[in-house]
Amino acid sequence: MRRTCACTMALLLAAASGGALAQASTLPLPPPDPPPTAAPMQRQSGMVVIQGDHDERTVVRSYEPDSVVGDYRIDFDALDANGAGVIDRREAAAHSTLADEFRAVDDNGDGRLDRNELSGWIR
User: Quick one: average pLDDT of 29-53?
Assistant: First the structure.
């Protein structure tokens, strides 16, 4: 009992003399996050090393996605309506995913997709 009084008296003196009082929280800690799981192995599809100043290097790697959203398979001959051996934007519009990805797939930026540019898409 005496100790409680001494602690209370010390707190009152600190408050009266302009001292700051800290307030402690007694809330329980949140549960810990589950441990991270290892990502599934993905096939590396590319790597570039960029040389910077002062022997600094930046390594950029690309990996195939572990899940794909959208239909990334096409029937080239069916989409090549005019038989020109390439698929232009108008022909690509018949396949919604290809139409959305057209610019990314058009490696040389000529506005036409050939079999080489679509090698991963052809069934």
Answer: 75
